[in-house]
# Entry
Amino acid sequence: MANNQWYKELAVYQIWPRSFKDGNGDGIGDLWGVLEKLDYIKSLGVDAIWFSPLYCSPNADYGYDISDYRKISPEYGDNELFKKVLDEAHKRGLKIIMDLVVNHTSDEHEWFIESKKSKDNPYHDYYFWRDGKGKDGKKPPNNWLSVFEGGAWEYNEDLKQYYLHVFAKKQVDLNMDNPKVRQEVKDIMKFWLDMGVDGFREDVITFISKAEGLPNGFPLPIGTGLEHYKKGPHIHEYLSEFRHDVLDKYDCFVVGESPMTNAKTALEFTDEHGDKELDMMFLFDHMEADCFMTDTIHLPFNLKKMKKAFANWHKTLDGKGWPALYLENHDHPRIVDRYGNLNYRVESAKMLATMCYMQSGTVFIYQGQEIGMTNFHLDSLDQFKDVVTFNNYKLFKKLGFSDAAYLKIANTTSRENGRTPVQWTSGEYAGFSTAEPWFHLNENYKQINVEQAENDENSILNYYRKLLKFRKENPIVIYGDYKEHYKDSDKMFVYERNYEGKRMLVVSSFSDRALRFDAPEGFNLEKGKKVLGNYSTEKIIDNGFIMNPYETRVYLFE
Ligand code: NOJ
# Structure
C-alpha cells in the first residue's frame, strides 16, 4: 500500500477553469490561461492545483455533468494541452488533483444515450430506470426530491420509465450497485493516474450507494429521500474497492466531498487506523456559521458556531483523521463578504486566512480568495447562470417572494458570487480575457486585482505568501495540538498550538471595534515573537494588547 502522508503538508489552489484565465480569447477560461499563470500559482507557495472538472460537458452544472470522462472539453483545450499543463506543473513541483464526479453523468454521456434505447440495452442498468406508479404508470417511483430541481425522477416517453437524478435533470445518477459501473469508475481513475495526475477530489462521494428498493423518504415537508442515499448501505464497500483496486497502487491522495459531513462522519471514511477509504473529507459545519444548512437561508454570522465546528474537528479527528482547511470554493459566496467585513476588507481577509490556516490540516485556497475578491451586485435575474439559482427562484416564488426580494437574496447567497472571472489587472476585462467574459465581471476589478496586489507589499496576496511560507517552515502549524481559549467570546477567536517544545498563540478579532486582549494563563507575550499579523503594531501592555478592528496576531514561543 502506498500509504502516503505527504498530503498533510500540502497547500492546494483550486481552479474553477471557466473563470480562471482565458488564454485563447473567447471569453472563457481555459488551460492556455492556466499555463500562462503556473508561475503565479507557484509564487503563492502552494504545492498543488485542484481542477474543478475540465472534461467534456454540456455545462448544465458547469462541468459537474460529464459527457466524456477521458476527454478535456474543447472549451478548455485538449488532452495534449492538459498533459503539457501537468508536466509543466510537475516541473515546478506542483501536484495536480482532478475532480472525479461519479455519482452522476450527463444525460449526454454515451452510456445514458445507450441506456435509454431499450430496457435490454447493456447500458440500461448503468442508471436507475424504474417503472412509474399509479394506473397509467405516470407517478414517480418514489417521493424523493432532487437537490437541485423539483422531483428526483424524470419520465422518458419512449421507454415509459423514469430515471433518477438526485441533482439536475441533466445529471443522471449512476447505479453503483452494478459491478460494471464500478469497473468503469476504476478505469477512469486509472486513466488519469496513469497519465500522471496525483489524486482526486471526489464529488458528493458519499451519495453513490442508494438504499435497496429505493424506498420512499420521510414524507414532505421534512423529507427529500436523502436519508436513503446520503450514506448508503454499500458506501464503505465501494470506496474500499476503489481504494484497494486502484488508489493503493499509486502515490496519490483523495479528498472526498459530501454535503452534511461533520467530523464524526468523516472519520468513518478516513480513520488512519481503519480502511482509510479516503485520505480526508471536506467538512461543511464551519461554513454554516451564517446560514442554516445551505447558504441560501442566510443568518447573521455567529462566531461561536464557527469556533465550535473547528474545535469539534480537532477533537474528533485528533491522531485519527485529517482536516481539510477551506473557506471558499466554487459553491459559496466570497468569505470576506460572509465572515469578514467589507469596510475592513484587507484586514478581515488577512485575519480570516490566519485564523483558518494556522490550524492543523491541508490548506485549500480558491482562485481569487488570495486577493480578497468579493461578492457581486447583479441588477437582474437574467444575469445569473446557475441551475441552483434558478431552482431557488422557483422555491422562493412559491413562498411568495417578489423578484426584487429574490434578487437581493441571490446577490448575497448565490454560489455564483464565487464564479466571477478572476481579476488580474485593472485593464480591459480585468486582464481575464481579450473578449467579453462569459460571466459578469465584478465592477471592483479596477481596485481589486492581482497586478495591484503584486505592487503592494501589504496586500492580501503578499500576506498569503508570508503565511504559506511560515506554515511550510514551521511544522508546529501542521502537526501541533490545538487548544482553544475564550471559547465563550463572540468577538475573539484564540487558540494555542504545541509541538516539540514550541508553542504558538493565534489571536483574531472578529470585531469592527477596538478590543482588549489578555494573554491566556501561562503565556508571556514579551517572551514570544510576533511572526504574523495584519497591523504593524507590536505594542504589548500588561501581557495583552488593544486589538484593532479585525486584527490578527500569531506569536511563536521557542
Ligand atoms: C458538488 C459540487 O461542488 C457542485 O458544484 C455540484 O453542483 C454538485 N456537487 C453536483 O455535482
